[in-house]
Design brief:
Length: 276
């Protein structure tokens, strides 16, 4: 997802900051978590307001697993605000991009879709990897320009070339905004890319940073909101079976899917599942 260059909103009143977070699109999960944690400070003495604020945030950004993780931690903590800051610190210290950069094979050709947050951070660390960047949602061209400026070989692939790029790559690297027990939320085109790679014997790596793995109860609510947001062929995000994934790259490096799912640490806060 392309960065917006937003930075922090230190000069903005917390309520306005919350409105900004709720409206924001095209902002990476790390920034969303940090801004939400800051905005929730306005509700430190208002438990009912805290619940409403968390509910509105996750309903506005249902595909953002890290926001469900943050809000679940805040609403189940004895002292919500220190917990919010701990979560923000954990997101800020996420090593997933570093681990992905280390794990990519030497001189590999990687197929990626759009401008994924963590993948986009990892690729400039590797000068020997070529990226076939499919211009999903019109974001791929921006990533290509960034990679070329960092002396990383990159090819801007039109969306109609998605299948060919997935088949030609040494590895298809997809990024999950949220991961459940049997599927993940990825940018539109992720399922097609993974299916082509599987058919052609290419490995599929799923990048899932801190806070993006959620338990069944959260996944049911999250995926239901994502699935209902638009007609499948018009949606920016889609649900992809984990059966198409070979390994998951997280803050401790690549793991088999079953092992990676044990990293789920998102608390279940019943308050989040009430419709607005």
């Amino acid at each position: 997802m392309a960065p917006t260059g937003g930075g922090t909103l230190a000069a903005v009143h917390p309520i306005e900051r919350l409105r900004y977070v709720a409206r924001a699109s095209g902002v990476d999960q790390s920034l969303l978590v940090q801004e939400t944690a800051s905005a929730l400070g306005a509700f430190g003495g208002d438990p009912a307001g805290m619940v409403t604020a968390c509910r509105r945030i996750v309903h506005r950004h249902p595909a953002c697993g890290a926001l469900w993780w943050l809000c679940g931690r805040v609403l189940t903590a004895g002292d919500p605000m220190p917990e919010a800051w701990r979560a923000a610190d954990e997101i800020d210290a996420d090593r997933t991009a570093v681990e992905l950069a280390h794990a990519l094979p030497d001189d590999a050709t990687a197929c990626v879709l759009g401008w994924p947050d963590l993948v986009g951070e990892a690729l400039p660390r590797r000068g020997d990897v070529e990226a076939l960047v499919v211009d999903v949602l019109g974001e791929g061209s921006g990533l290509v320009r960034r990679l070329l400026a960092a002396d990383v070989e990159a090819v801007d692939v039109a969306t109609q070339g998605l299948g060919a790029a997935a088949a030609a790559a040494d590895v298809v690297v997809l990024e999950a905004s949220a991961v459940g027990p049997d599927a993940f939320v990825g940018v539109a085109g992720s399922r097609a890319a993974a299916a082509v790679a599987r058919h052609d014997g290419r490995p599929v790596w799923l990048v899932a940073g801190v806070g993006r793995l959620v338990p069944q109860r959260v996944w049911d609510a999250l995926s239901g909101l994502v699935d209902a947001a638009a007609e499948p062929w018009e949606a920016d995000d889609e649900l992809v079976p984990l059966a198409l994934v070979d390994q998951v790259v997280g803050p401790t490096g690549p793991q088999p899917v079953a092992d990676a799912l044990r990293r789920t640490d998102c608390p279940v806060a019943a308050e989040l599942f009430v419709s607005l």
